[in-house]
Amino acid sequence: MSVDYDDARSLNPFFARNTSPPWGQRLGAVLTVLGLGGTSPSLDVFADAVYDWETANALPNPNGILDQNAWAAMEPASRICVEHPPIPLSWLAPVGDSVLDAIDAVEVPMSGAIPLGAGLPSVVRIPVPGSGNLAIEFFPRNFKGKSTSTLFIQNMKGNKTLRLDYGFNKTTGTVDYHWNQKGTHAKFGIADHTTVGKAGQIIYKGAKYFRYAGRALVVLGAAIDVVHVVQSSNPLRTATAKVTAWALAAAGCKSVGYLGAAGGTAIQPGLGTAAGGVAGCIVGGIGGYYGGERVGEVVYDWAEGTIFTQLDRIVP
User: Fold this and answer.
1) What is the DSSP string of 195-221?
2) Number of other residues whose CB lies within 10 A of the CB of residue 185
3) At residue 104, does pLDDT exceed 50?
4) What's phi and psi for 194, nearest 5 deg?
5) Nearest in space to 4 (alpha carbons), one of 71, 63, 68, 91
6) Where are the beta strands (DSSP E) in the chain?
7) Can you point out the beta strands (E) in 93-160?
8) So where are the chain's domains?
9) Structure confidence by residue, pLDDT tens digits, 195-216
10) How many Å apart are CA 261 and CA 274, to the nearest integer?
11) Does residue 158 sit in helix, strand or coil?
């Protein structure tokens, strides 16, 4: 395992604001935990320090990125007092008291629909019709080590998979973007090591960042909805609506994603399958959220306004 500096340069500034709580709020403590206290490290130096800390603390798949999982492990150690404020970092703007500060300033009605719907494909298995339980995902199943692939159409066990990869291709004898497959040729007609061209390169790179950013969007959606519940004049009604919204958002993501994957496969098996499934999941997730929110409100209002009268007991 090693640091992917391209990933680290893009994702560490992102996660500084979008973990829960944002680790950028405790920058001085984080730098102290990493052995960088009193310094102003570059992105690469910071990534190296995170990687060393992950390795020293036996975190799985160390990669130099202080994402939500790594931060959850580090956060208890960051609850310390730092003598001096951290030296400003050129790559990180100051983070406010809370990631919700911006939410509080929004004057329109708050809803986690958009961030949740946009992020759902990164956490939901999007089923592919007629494939024998294959689904679109962004992380491998039952794989040890760090995969060089970023997009997977795989079964639950991970022993049947079509994955979008970048590396040496033994068929072409070059380093390129290509499909690797095991047990999926009959469904998609894609042979092992089939190159994917420019479109495949774009999808590979998009998936590389979306699989992390999507999860952060889901967390953001949850944070927005929590604030909405807390600030509501009727928290129980709002909470009921949000719970129903999230349930139907997940269901909508899967069902419309299923249809999108079918349509995408008809156009171009593999890349079309993934693009159609993800797009359908986003549309279905957002639509399911709004529909579920309305259903939750109606059910709550019905239950609250309904009076049940006791029937007279029939004496035999």
Assistant:
1) E-HHHHHHHHHHHHHHHHHHHHHHHHH
2) 13
3) no
4) -75, 125
5) 63
6) 126-127, 135-137, 149-154, 161-169, 174-182, 194-195
7) 126-127, 135-137, 149-154
8) 5-99, 111-316
9) 999 999 999 999 999 999 999 9
10) 6
11) coil
